[in-house]
Predict the structure.
Amino acid sequence: MIEEMETLLNHWGEQTRRCGTAGGLGSPMATIMEWGGCAPRGTPGPRSLLNGGAGIDAVAQEVAAALAEVSRQDERGQMLERLAVLRYTDDSAPTWLMQLHLCGSTSRVKRTYYDQVHSLHLRLLQVLAGRSDARKWLTTGRGDLPQSLLKAASKLRRAG
């Protein structure tokens, strides 16, 4: 197992348990219908949107996107994504043997389970590294950082 990936996946699992897979704020129209107009105001001051149902944080979103990409790679990727959901998102995660069974593995060897967890960590690390590299090319900046593709395209259009 890769400890850094284990930490990231534990964070993703905790965020997913706490917030669900998709966040959402209340509908303004539903609030108007519920209260017959504007809802009563609470105490004055700023509110933290992160704890108000706005969903999982940016790190957990990136891990979720990377897991979805792993799942789209092949059949084994789908199995590894199911393993991640079973291992990290359940409050009382099933035993390693039950996780293997629910993922479709016929093996009853504990080493196989940890090999699959390690394989999940490796694939996720590769995808996250690839996503990070791709993002570097989309950033704007001066000096060593390349300009965004949109900005470069708009400059080419003006010149042509």
Q: What stands out?
A: Residues 30 and 50 are 21 Å apart (CA to CA). The chain has one domain: 3-19+53-159. The chain has a mean pLDDT of 80. The radius of gyration is 21 Å.
